[in-house]
Amino acid sequence: MTSSELETPPLDTARRLAEGGDLEGAAAILTELVADPANPDRAQAAVGLAVVLDERGDTDAARAAARTALATGHPEYAAQAACHLAQGFEREGRDDQARAAWQAVLGMGTAAYLPLAHLALARLAGGAAEAEKELRAAMESGERAGDAQAGAHAARQLAEMLLEHGDPGEAAELLLDALEFAPAGELPGLRVLLGIAHLELACAEFAEAVESGADPQTGALAIELLARTLPLRGRTEDAGQVWTYGLEHEDEILAAEVRLRFHRDA
């Protein structure tokens, strides 16, 4: 070992070896650091060892190292270790263990890792209500931690869920809020979802106008707008039923207005 290597902190040496592909050399240094309970770098070394051992394919030993880091209670490296465990369990489809590990991340209370944990728990949720709760928590914790990316990602998922469950109004409000803090790369996707929410709201208003007994001209306009908007949401069959409703309406004046609108593009 050269004099410069002797002066280099062991963690840095282990990192350099790992980056250079010498996983065994890195693991040897990290194992020695972890073996000393009094070492101030023990938690960081244990996380590094978990990563190196995982890359070597030694999953059990990697998890043991991660649990060692977790047991230190270090606000940064214990949280990293819990994330490492959780992600590994998710990859293997061991959802219960993954949930427990993500809950451990929440238990650490380290702000930077809370949005990630809430997003994961939403992904692993057993139902829509639980997923919604976790996504809202991800948005809130992302805002507190200054993690706009995680907050925007949570907002997008939650908006998609709200649209799927027929609540475009709340989805639109959520998306408008998200547009205020989302990073530039997330804005196009959020705006598309906001447009979809507005289309759903428009359909609801057009339908309400028809059902509320509008005059023939207004009713025919609402029918046309509803019938032409529904296909944009993939509801072509529903659009056909709306046209039929208007064309066969008992109010002959309204039906005539609808026929004019129906045939004007023919």
Automatic annotation (TrEMBL):
Q: Can you tell which superkingdom this protein's organism belongs to?
A: Bacteria
Q: Which InterPro entries match?
A: TPR-like_helical_dom_sf
Q: Would you tell me the protein name for this molecule?
A: Tetratricopeptide repeat protein
Q: Which organism is it from?
A: Nonomuraea spiralis
